[in-house]
């Protein structure tokens, strides 16, 4: 087999594995997050979860490095905000204009209770068609712990890019096993080729949970971003 064929066979195997991993979404997620919202922070705390701290600190470094305006006026969307762990870290670092979205109302309500968000919306599915959020709304979009097997497919990155303004940033974590199983790299390449996002930084194999490391990605939306409308499942 020639090299490109081998690559496409690898991509196909990864896609097959990934689609299998996403089959049981509804029941698995509902059990984890509808029933588990009350104990989520405690459970993650026991598991040494430091993803929200890393993502928020990357957002802070990105603001210092790239934005002339001060941190307090940067608009941030926390996509898949869960109970608000990332929002709390963002607030600690001086961000003030933070919105959240999540699939489950139970998690969104916990996030609202932190009082660090301006607005938190539930029933927003990053695996679905583009949401009714206006395009180019946010300076920075963060997404921590959401590109996880049986959660959000790599194609969800398009929606994150869509709601982020040109020259804004998308910061996301991916468990290392997720990248291997889903071909996340290939989706990143597709989006870069289409002019939707540019990868400006990646922390490889960094601390995330005691049981597994993650990669942390910082993307920039180009000044003249292509309208990322097609190819949503
Ligand atoms: C592991 S939690 C991470 C929560 C938070 N970002 C954090 O780091 O603590 C994953 C979150 O993604 C949400 N989620 C899962 N699938 C989703 C989807 N398709 N669209 C939007 N959110 C989703 C879950 O409801 C849950 O709150």
Q: Describe it for me?
A:
This protein has helices spanning 3-22, 25-34, 40-46, 51-66, 85-92, 105-114, 157-163, 176-182, 184-193; strands spanning 75-79, 97-101, 120-121, 138-147, 164-175, 198-209, 212-220. It has 233 residues and is of the alpha/beta class. The protein has one domain (3-220): Vaccinia Virus protein VP39 (Rossmann fold, 3-Layer(aba) Sandwich), CATH 3.40.50.150. It has a seven-stranded mixed sheet, with helices on both faces. The longest helix has 20 residues, at 3-22. The chain starts with a helix and ends in a 13-residue tail after the last strand. Residues 29, 33, 51-52, 80-82, 85-86, 102-104, 107, 124-127, 144-146, 151-152 line the site of S-adenosylmethionine. One of its GO terms (molecular function) is polyprenyldihydroxybenzoate methyltransferase activity. This is Methyltransferase type 11.
């Amino acid at each position: 087999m020639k090299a490109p064929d081998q690559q496409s066979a690898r991509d196909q195997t990864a896609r097959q594995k990934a689609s299998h991993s996403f089959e049981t979404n509804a029941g698995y997620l509902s059990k984890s997050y509808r029933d588990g919202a009350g104990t989520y922070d405690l459970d993650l705390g026991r598991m040494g979860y430091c993803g929200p701290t890393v993502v928020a600190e990357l957002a802070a470094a990105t603001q210092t490095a790239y934005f002339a305006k001060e941190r307090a006026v940067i608009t941030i969307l926390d996509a898949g905000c869960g109970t608000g762990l990332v929002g709390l870290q963002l607030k600690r670092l001086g961000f003030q204009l933070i919105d959240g979205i999540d699939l489950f109302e139970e998690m969104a309500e916990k996030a609202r209770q932190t009082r660090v968000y301006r607005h938190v919306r539930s029933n927003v599915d990053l695996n679905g068609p583009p949401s009714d959020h206006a395009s180019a709304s946010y300076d920075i979009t963060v997404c921590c712990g959401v590109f996880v097997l049986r959660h959000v497919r790599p194609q969800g990155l398009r929606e994150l890019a869509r709601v982020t303004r040109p020259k804004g940033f998308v910061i996301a974590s991916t468990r290392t096993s997720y990248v291997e199983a889903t071909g996340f790299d290939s989706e990143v390449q597709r989006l870069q080729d289409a002019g939707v996002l540019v990868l400006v930084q990646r922390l490889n194999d960094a601390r995330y949970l005691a049981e597994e490391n993650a990669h942390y990605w910082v993307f920039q939306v180009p000044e003249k971003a292509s309208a990322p409308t097609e190819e949503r499942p």
